[in-house]
Design a protein that fits this description.
Number of domains: 2
Mean pLDDT: 80
Organism: Actinocatenispora sera
Keywords: DNA recombination, DNA-binding, Transposable element, Transposition
Largest sheet: 5 strands, mixed
Radius of gyration: 30 Å
Number of helices: 19
Region (Disordered): 71-90
Order of helices and strands: HHHHEEHHHHEEEHEHEHHHHHHHHH
Function: Required for the transposition of the insertion element.
Oligomer: single chain
Protein name: Mutator family transposase
Structural class: alpha/beta
Number of strands: 7
Strand order of the largest sheet: 5-4-3-6-7
Length: 430
Amino acid sequence: MTEMMSGMDNTDDPTRAAGLGGLDEQLIDQLVDRAKAGGLQLTGEGGLLAALTKRVLESALEGEITDHLGYQAHDPAGRGSGNSRNGVRSKTVLTEVGPVELDVPRDRNGSFEPRIVAKRQKRLSGVDEMVISLAAKGLTTGEVQAHLAEVYGAQVSRQTISTITDKVIEGMVEWQNRPLDAVYPVVFIDAIHVKIRDGQVANRPIYVALAVTCEGNRDILGLWAGDGGEGAKYWLHVLTELKNRGVADVLMMVCDGLSGLPEAIASVWPATVTQTCVVHLLRNSFRYAGRQHFDAIAKALRPVYTAPTEAAAAERFAEFTEAWGTRYPAIVRLWERAWAEFVPFLAFDPEIRRVVCSTNAIESVNARIRRAVRARGHFPNEQAALKCVYMAVMSLDPTGIGRKRWMMRWKPALNAFDIAFDGRLAAGKK
């Protein structure tokens, strides 16, 4: 409705000069009385809001044709002007309050091009935004179609809904190739798996990179669809692309301990500290243990990852090895292989430890993506999957409350980062 009002001409009609507040009060009273007396519905075809929307749009269209012709209706100044009004044509447009039938004015020369409801336009932009928002929340095209029919009385085909959501692809390409900051304090990387039907339905990874900016904001750097299983080779491609888009330095990279990933990170940014997610390390440990020992193993490993120093962690791990190494040697080997990427966070202050010891920062994003993906089951192709994930990412934190909470959480850590990394963070702000 805001867009409708901004497109209206305020100069010629005093009822339009004040926007909605300038509408004929008697008309509004009549509509309200009808609603009370006859049970007039609020939305949908023939509803109260539809009637008001019709009045606003037709007033705006009348103002547009007045501007186009240069004179008011029935004004003698228009005689001999070479063009004049030529009645109206009816068309139905889908709005945020349901279908609305409009009388669109015409001119004899056929040169009038309305802006607020353009020729051949069947939907107002607010409807497209609503459809995209519903799709981003995980609704399928069929569910969006049913929602529009039930709530707004509008019959919209599935193909139309797909066409509307396809509009985001252009923005997605631009977003995916945008320049990035020169330095990021922390980048979290992870992959989620979606089902894509390419000949046959198969699990395919969608790679996600989430960064913390020098100002403490959350910035999702991009989305990439891989082929086959998650692998360090494809992560090398992703990280190289980030570097080519302007990322010259990353202080810490937090990941899930995938084999070969630390080497891939070091080949792109040699000075970057790679931190393995402690939660993933614990989760992988339980794969080698009997369920009856889960609680005991968790209790025995806790002193290792909560140790005040790396040396203390090594001592606690030796105690764990002595107690459980004979029964579960695979867990010991798992931690030994990951030790070099596990211990870096132990060298930092508690403010940094809390935010880099796991990939929880990106897991919340992944959870939102999974909800949207799960509703669709599988996708016909890679682009459809990326479009769904992109819309889910763009719909994160619509109120901005999460952003404020994120910045408050990261501010103490960023102050400690600047000291711990010898001014590399400050250099990135210049």
